[in-house]
Amino acid sequence: MKQQLLPSMSQDIEAAPKLLTESAGKSRCSVFRVPRPLAGGNAEVCRPRIVSIGPYHHGEVQLGMLQEHKWRYLQSMLDQTQPHGVGLEDLIDILAPKVEMIRKCYSESTDRFSGPDLVKMMVLDGCFIIQFLRQMAGVIQIDPSLKNSYVLASVMQDLHRLENQVPYFVLEDLFETANVPKGTLSLADLAFHFFSRFPEVFGNVWERRSNLKGVHLLDSFCLSLIPWDQRDIYPLNKRSSHHLIKSASELHRVGIGFKQREASTFLEIKFDRERRIIRIPKVTIDDLNWILPNMVAFEQCSGQGDGHITSYAAFMGYLILNHSSMSNEDVAHFFSDVCKDATFYVKGSYLDSFGLAIVATLASMIQIVYALLQLYHPS
What we know:
Blueprint lengths: L1 H13 L49 H18 L6 H8 L3 H5 L11 H22 L12 H10 L9 H11 L8 H9 L3 H4 L14 H9 L31 E5 L8 E3 L4 E5 L3 H4 L3 H10 L6 H9 L11 H11 L11 H4 L2 H8 L6 H7 L3
Parallel strand pairs: 1-3
Antiparallel strand pairs: 2-3
Helix pairs in contact: 2-5, 3-7, 5-7, 5-8, 13-14
């Protein structure tokens, strides 16, 4: 038996891991395969429905329709750039030296793609994204296929899914190379135009517009939600906080109430100490159920246990919101499932700066439901 096992076991020992590479634990890694618990028990929400971007879902049969359309988008870009001396070879040349840098951005091995194949994928997918963003901003004419509302909504959502990302520097390099003649809108401008297509979720994103750029589109989207006065505390020092939240308290019983508030982003939950009221922007679960799990999964996979989105989702897991088709219990379960296995500290998170850590200390943060029922469903 020993002679049978030694060769195969030795080979397995020497083999490099494929599903979780060494880059997964390093800061440059930004595109993750999502463990099931971090997506509310449904990792499918982090996977594309209609268009694949990047290596994880490349070549999947059900995503083939728009794969063919990508070539039309690339041709439309070249039609704009070639009269100004920028051709396909220039797009290839700008990414070819960065193959290893691109590979290190993915937690799962991309070795099944050769260097040329990976560059081909990045050029094709990157140009597709840029041309799509230009269409959303009204810079170029919209593709007739996107006039189908289902296709358009699906593509917009797929570009925010964690397993469906390309590094932002890929988009930057392609955009700067192909931006001839120089347009008035930057890549960041195009991204903010795109984000503003979701006003129910993002509020007035233009109030928070800046040149902030994330490691990919999903990260940029997360950053666009963060209020200006909270950006300098992100990420946070985890050693300053040791109070891991497991449950919420009966805040109503200690005299803390709840009111809705107008805000530029749903993250702006505030505690009015004088009136002992937590003020919460109203949201609809239908607007969050596809994006919130992706944002939480990204923060958790990248080690941002005190991240703004995780903090919000974990806190809201203890609250109930008005929703048209879900029962109150279903809504509570939605938030709690999103952060079921997430690490979350309220002390030291952005909620701390809004005065909510003192609420956690005061009331020990255990389950509340009925206080909010009175707010949204008064008798």
